[in-house]
Each structure stands twice: as structure tokens, then as C-alpha cells.
Amino acid sequence: MTEGLSKKELPPTAQALIERFESCQARVGVIGMGYVGLPLAVILAESGYSVTGIDLDPKKVEMLQRGESYIEDISSAQIAKLVKNGKLTASTSFESLTKVDGVSICVPTPLRKTGDPDLTFIISAVRALCPILHSGMVVILESTTYPGTTREMLLPEFEATGLLVGEDFFLAFSPERIDPGRLDWTVKNTPKVIGGITPICTEVAAAMYGQALTSIIKVSSSEVAEMTKLLENTFRAVNIGLVNEVAIMCNRLGIDVWEVVDAAASKPFGYMKFTPGPGLGGHCIPIDPLYLSWKLKSVKYTARFIELASEINTNMPRYVIQRMQDALNEQSKPLKGSRVLVLGVAYKPNVSDLRESPALDVIGLLLQKGAIVEYYDPYVPSIEHDGWMLESVPDLIKAVSQADCVMIVTDHANIDYPAVAEAATLVFDTRNAMGTNGIRDSKVVRL
Ligand code: SAJ
Q: Within the chain, which residues score under 50 in pLDDT?
């Protein structure tokens, strides 16, 4: 973290821009109206800025213009009020960003099929911004990416316009820390790390966010800010990989991993609880660490923890199927031809997001092995993936009673687990959903 600079140490362009932010008269743009960009646009608008949200999807733009939200954490009432008072507008055109004082880029950073970072969304946003980049403007990249992206990829594009960073325009990185559905830590009160290409860039970016967000954490460079985010999410991926390997170890030793995990969680310091499962889903945790390991390869370093955790987490779908096969075998039932009901397919509980969900791999592998596969997920009506398509069964308990095995893959809170246990012949529980609901039954086998 850095103390920052006093205003008198700043060039006139920076001072004037900071004054515009501090007067809340500034106009800002947010590129990418997804689960990161829309909450950010709303909080910036609610702080007094005039905000223009840019998205390539005309349906999203039309909904926002009608005052309708498509993000669970943002109500339509919030949108409608801001649209009505002119504080929030939406457009598909970057031209509507002409003369803005600041822009945040919140576009996706997926992986290519090859496992390399895919920065196409960032590049197209940057190139669309260049024509409107002007003296007295700040650009903040929020999309999770490898250390060096802001300086190595964005800066040359912007300086090719002839403007000088840190004097004419300002450029920083600020990692998004949005956790959809979370109510305690929101876009407003979650501490916001900001690192500029230069210290003056950090000050200007901090001024833009400082009017809207509760806590600004200034760091000395954009690389520190980029690396901060990757440490946060690599920490999760590696610890989830660790607890998944502990589950495998416990099974080999005949020890109940869930009892071990719960007992370890009684330690009030120096420990953080993670739970084993069927694999690692979502668009952050499985992907962000691979951005870091990819970058390290370019400096001839192997990020061993990341690669090992990825190997363990990626193998968990196969492992849980093998464990379920063992349970069916105890009932002299081959997996081939057995009816398996997968219960819960979203990537984590109580969400509808399927991205990278381990359930997709579990179902694909079960189909490959000749099982008769159905699924039930109240949040996910249908799945089309990798050449197969399934719909969530309409009657959970009826499907449970007809299944040779129920495999709990995602433990949504709104499932009647006692009724499932009652109706089931066999349950393979990868999330300890039954144990968490106080159900101990010989027909329930857990990871
Ligand atoms: N998972 C486990 N065991 C665990 C925790 C998670 O198997 O102990 C699995 C989940 O089932 C899921 C995957 O890992 O498939 C990712 O779960 P997650 O809890 O990390 O949730 P995400 O992917 O929504 O992560 C987001 C991240 N937020 C941001 O990047 C801004 C992450 O940094 C947050 O810590 C996390 O939410 C959170 O705490 O909920």
C-alpha cells in the first residue's frame, strides 16, 4: 500500500480531473454491463456521477434503458430511478463516451481452448476507446488478468494516440471483488485496490472511485494490483485443491474427511475452512490462477502449486464417479445401465450459473460410461453441453425413487434432503448436504 501524493505534487491536468470527481460533476463510462460492470455503474451513478454503461448486447442496453435489471444483486427500481433522473444511460456505442472524465473496463477475460488467456474483449474495448481518449481522462481496467497487462498491452495502445500517461491521461488497474449474491460485502463496502501506471495515475483513479466506494487501497503499480487479485483467487484454488486431496487421502485411510474438516474448523486462528467437492466451478477460481501460471511460463518459471491444484481439482469429477461406482458395486449394480440422478448442477449453491460447473464433467463422464442420467436443479431448467442436452426432471422425489443412485453435486439450500434420503435407494453425497442437514443414513455414502 502507498501513502499517495498531495494535490500540489500533481500536474494541472490531474488536479483539474480530481476536482471534477470530488465535485461529483464528472461523467464516467463503464464498459461491460455484466455482474461486475452493472453494480459498479449503479454505485458510481448513485454517488452523483453521470454514468454511461456500454455493452455489445443490445438486449441488455434496451433493458437498462427501460429501467429493468438482469443482475440478481441490482433491482429494477434502482436502475429505473437512475435512468429517470438521467444519472444512468446505456448504449452499444462508444461514441456516447466522448468527453467522459473516466472509464472503467469490466469485460470478460476467459481462457482459450488452449488454456491461454483470451484478451480479445479487453483489446477490442481498448481500441474502441482510443478515438475518444482525451487529455484529462482516466481509464481503469477491472478485468482479472495477468500481471503486466495494463502496462504492456493497454498503455502502448493509448500512448499511440500521442497522449502521455500520467500527464495527459491516467491509467490504472483495480481488481473487481464482486461476489454475486453476497449481501455483507458489496461493491460499495468491499475495499478496492487501485494501482496506477504511475503514482499520479493511482491518485486520479482513487479520486474517481473514492467518491463512491467506502475504502480505497492504493498500491504502487498496476502490476501489484493485478497480482493482488490473482493471489486472492489462487489462494482459493490451491486450498480447495488441498482439501480435495485430503478427501482422497482420508478415503484411503478409512477416515471421514467431513469430520476432519469440521474438527479442523474449530481452530480459531491460523486456519480457514474449505470443503471437498466434485471439482472447481465458476468463471473466476478455475481460470484466474491459470492466467498467472501462463505469465510465469513467459519468464521460464513453473507455478507448481497452481498446476498441481488445477490437476487435482480437474480430476475430481472422475474421482467422485469412481467412488459412486464403488458404492453401486456394493449393491452389485454396474454403473453401465444404472439410473443416476444428479442433484444440483450449478457451479455453487443457490445460483443458476453453470460456467465451468463440475456437474458438466460429471454428467458427460456418466453418459460416456453408459449410465442412464437425469438431473434436478431448481435453478437450471436445461443444459446443452458438449453434444448432449438434458432438462431438469419435473418431480424430484419421483426421480429419486426411480434412481439406482442419487449423486449430490451441488448442495442448493432449497432441496428437501430428508425427503430425498427417504425416497432414495442410494445417495452419493459429494457436498455432505445430508450431513449438514443432520441426516445419517446407511444408504448415504459421502465423499
Ligand atoms: N468450492 C469448493 N470448496 C470450497 C469452496 C468452493 O469445492 O471450500 C468450489 C465451489 O463449489 C465452486 C468453486 O469452488 O465450484 C468456486 O467457488 P467460490 O466459493 O470460490 O465462488 P466463486 O467462484 O463465486 O468465487 C467468488 C470470488 N469472488 C471474486 O473473484 C470477486 C472469490 O474471490 C470469492 O472468495 C468467492 O466468490 C466467495 O468467497 O464467495
A: none
Q: How far apart are the C-alpha atoms of 375 and 361, rounded to whole Å?
A: 13
52 SS3 class: strand
Complete domains list, the chain, with CATH: 7-220 (3.40.50.720), 233-446 (3.40.50.720)
pLDDT tens column, 57-112: 999 999 999 999 999 889 999 999 999 999 999 999 999 999 999 999 999 999 99
> How many other CB atoms are there within 10 angstroms of residue 322's CB atom?
11
Q: How far is CA 343 from CA 79, 347, 391, 395, 433, in A?
A: 35, 12, 12, 12, 11
Q: Please tell me the predicted confidence (pLDDT) of residue 157.
A: 98
How many CA atoms lie within 13 Å of 93's alpha carbon, on the beta-carbon side? Answer: 3
Query: Which residue has the least CA distance to atom 32 on ligand 1?
Result: 233
The reported pLDDT for the residue numbered 162 is 97
pLDDT score recorded for residue 25: 83
Cell numbers that stand for 385 in this block: 453441453
| Count of residues in the chain | 447
| H or E, element range at 253 | helix 222-253
Q: Is the pTM value of this prediction over 0.70?
A: yes
Q: Report CA(285)–ligand 1 centroid distance (Å).
A: 6
Using a 6 Å CB cutoff, which residues line ligand 1? 176-179, 232-233, 236, 240, 274-275, 277, 280-282, 284-285, 347-348
Give the span between the Cα atoms of 156 and 169, in whole angstroms: 13
